[in-house]
Amino acid sequence: MIHRRFMKHVTDQNWIAAGLGLVVCIALLLQHSSAESQDVDERMAFMESLFTGAEQHQNFHRLAEIFPSGVMKASSSPYTFPIAETIDLPTSYEFAGKSRDMRAFLEETDTAALVVIADGAIKYENYWLTGGPDVHWMSFSVGKSFVSALIGIALEEGHIKSIEDAITDYVPSLNGSAYEGVRIKDILQMSSGARWNEDYSDPESDIANYIRTLAGNGSLNEFTASLVRESEPGTAYLYNSTDTQALGMLLIAATGQSMTSYAEEKLWQPLGMEKDGYWNTDDEGVEAAAGGLQITARDYAKLGQLYLNMGRWQGNQIVPSEWVRASITPDAPHLMPGKLYPDYPMGYGYQWYPLDGDEGEFLAIGVYNQFIYVNPAKSVVIIKLSAFRDYGKDLEDSSYREIESIYSLRAIAQSIN
Fold first, then answer.
1. For residues 167 and 35, what is the distance between their CA atoms, to the nearest angstrom?
2. How far apart are CA 64 and CA 293, in angstroms?
3. Max CA separation in the chain (angstroms)
4. pTM recorded for the entire structure
């Protein structure tokens, strides 16, 4: 038998302990809430600095520290590109009827990494600002081309039956939105018909709202489901980052895996990625499919080399060759070079930009001048990672310099014997 007085002592002690525990729990919750609030504040401060002319090279190499992120572990069998005899960059390139200085251009666009691979070997590699061989750099929309590769793999594996299917066959939560009944193919080709404004200089644009959703406590899935229809799907090209977000929802629903997990299994491991990769997520753990990827310059180059080799890597077919071919081939009048924007030399495939000309060139492009450039005729892949501070400040060409970048990359490719 336990004495009553002892029982009262135990009960009092329990209440004291419980009270102290409650205080500790509240303190931890407040601390967590405060830290979470600080995280959101830091993310919002970064997002609000975009497209304002602010320097960004201090940010683009550390975004996995600011945003919650999924991790793709480096390959257990990493592949390192061989090093070939180093080339000199051409001193100039032609653009808009004038000769331009290559070094000045690289400096003016805040270039952080430039890697040139020819015949599968590194011919030139240099880093500036906060770039470096082990530095993870923000992909922005270059990440869309990785999403496309994953869609092609999921199709081959039978997770997706056909890109002629409606996306809502797989993602019913998009019923009632702009994406209801829309072919997967139309979304791949930025022809979903959703109403969208991707004006980076407009703080009230749709892309600004997407950015705020990612930076705050919002849901990317709910944001995607909020879009409304503007035009008939499959009839007009309109660049829309949320189209790729819808493709991310498709991948997750079809494969039953997170995008991070599927990318690690299907790309990171087989391609011999040398470093971990990061994919920024919202607070629900949903990856920012539209451009939240962060990897090293050499690992970006592996996707370019994979597509140069029509989906083959070290003797293995990683992405179906027919998918690669379709991805870099515009197949409708509104997707042909010169039709996307006036005087633009590229068309659109499945989240890749085929270029005009007779050398079969194609690119992945991200804001602030991120590029994977591929020239099959020259067997060349070039990675340019940048933090061009003037990007998107207004609608003038001088605030983008993307077409000029293409001409500079072409000049580098043409200089290789």
1. 38
2. 9
3. 100
4. 0.91
